Amino acid sequence: MGNFLRLFGLLALGLAASSTFAGEAEIQVADPWVQAAPPSAKVLAAYLEIKNNGEKPQTLAEITSPVFGQVEIHRTTTRGNIARMEHLKELVIPPRSSVAIKPGGMHLMLMGGKNPLRAGDQVPMTLIFKNGEKIAISAAVRSMQEEDAGNSQHADHSKHQHH
Ligand SMILES: [Cu+2]
Asked: Angle at the Cα of 93 (from 89 to 99), degrees rounded to 5?
């Protein structure tokens, strides 16, 4: 009985803590973009940042896009001179922190593209989290050069999209 009451107390505390942030989206996605590639490219890479404003870890479990057959989370690891891509089944975003999926580290691998994409096109995607939350985003196709040149402009992360 004592244990049960203690557990109940912890749950109540947890509920109180989460309602403190009711006005703020628990998970936010910032600056999604897709790296432009020649029309012959079989796959494309997408990048974004995921912010967890909550007190619990959140897990990105699945990504879907109507214009791609499959989207996977990949991490590039370099051993010696050989870079390899590792397929991550899920991605955990710790509480009160953010994870950047950015060139050189991780990327979203877009596979089975239904149409060739050019710079300026938009790629709709849905991020599905383990807690059931779905976040719909639209990632603009940009070339690497644009990304470098536009870094200061894109530093503004205020255009979060959230469902
Ligand atoms: Cu990859």
From this structure: 95
- Evaluated on CA atoms 25, 128, 137, 156, the torsion sign reads positive
* Candidate CATH numbers 3.40.50.620, 3.40.50.300, 1.10.10.10, 2.60.40.1890; the one for domain 24-155: 2.60.40.1890
**Cα of 43 from ligand 1 centre, angstroms:** 8
Report the separation in Å between the CA atom of 120 and the middle of ligand 1, taken as the mean of its atom positions.
22
pTM of the model: 0.74
User: What tens digit of pLDDT does each residue of 64-85 get?
Assistant: 999 999 999 999 998 898 989 9
